[in-house]
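Field reference: "sequence" (input) and "structure" (output). Example, MarR family transcriptional regulator:
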Amino acid sequence: MALEIHNMAGHLIRRLNQISMSVFTERMKAQGQTMTSVQFAALNAIRAHPGIEQARLAELIAYDRATIGGVLDRLEGKGLILRSVCETDRRARLVSLTEVGQALLDEMIPVVRGFQDEILSGLTPEEREDFLRLAAKAADGGNHLSRAPLILEKKV
């Protein structure tokens, strides 16, 4: 028996998130990794922006600034990143990948790319493209409603 919530965007998004997290976790376990999707996102952003400020990293992956430190603590504990104090602002922490972090990310990127279609396995390839386009449009449109909005470019 279908419930009203079964056709509500919030419920369906939550279910897709459950599916995505489950697939991610299982694929990481299969690789012998305990990496979370947020840790993967952080590593990916750090690789694209070596020496990035910790607060800016949170903006680039749409993650809460107050809790990004814990994510980075775990990555640092695994020897995947290095943090240093910014010379121009002693309050800021700069983050970069270690060689181990770079190697692990290089290994994990194809794995993560490889299971993206599985997350949307109920869709045809064309529908997946449509879904991703529409999901990005919806996320962009509602970005201002987020507790941790995605900020791609800093306003000067």
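DSSP finds seven helices and three strands in the chain.
The longest helix spans residues 9-30.
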